[in-house]
Amino acid sequence: MRSNLDLPCFFFPRAAARAPETCASCPNRSVCAGVRRPTVEAIRAAGAVLGLDPTDVRFVDAHVEIDVDEPAARADEVFLSEKLSVEVRLSSIARALKRETIRLSEEVFRRWERVRFYPVEELRKVGRRMASSISD
């Protein structure tokens, strides 16, 4: 799909550096290899789409670390990573020490509703159904 749309994989720099054979036969390799590091201005503009206001941006190896004061979610990171074609890590994400479910802050939902990023009511319905099936 990415090849058909000429979309780079945001994890290309990390994957290619770790094991070049990972990307060797990928038909999208030329698209990924042509990606340039985003500017700080582009990062700020992408953050604004989500209602995030980056306070600091650091380029670290094959990813970008972005400090934000607003509570954020993994969906924010994935959106920014795809939009900017580089792996993004946001400072305000609650990260689990082990694989588990993390409850999203209501502030995240309100921000998503405000900027019309995600269908929050549908997400809440799915959450209620999941909680109901677990408690049954």
Descriptive notes:
The model has no long low-confidence stretch (mean pLDDT 83). The protein has 8 helices and 3 strands, in the order αααααββαβαα. α6 (74-84) links the parallel β2 (63-68) and β3 (87-90). The longest helix is centred in the C-terminal third of the chain and has 16 residues, at 120-135. The chain has 136 residues and is of the alpha+beta class. It has 2 domains: 1-35, no CATH class; 37-135, no CATH class. The protein has a 3-stranded mixed beta sheet with strand order 1-2-3. It has helices at residues 2-5, 12-18, 21-24, 29-33, 40-49, 74-84, 106-115, 120-135; strands at residues 54-60, 63-68, 87-90. 49% of the residues lie in helices and 12% in strands.
What's the number of domains?
A: 2
How many E strands?
3
Estimate the strand proportion: 5-15%
H/E element sequence: HHHHHEEHEHH
Low-confidence stretches are none
Mean pLDDT: 83
Percentage of residues assigned to helices: 40-55%
Number of helices: 8
The gyration radius over C-alpha positions equals 17 Å
Structural class: alpha+beta
For the sheet with most strands, the description reads: 3 strands, mixed
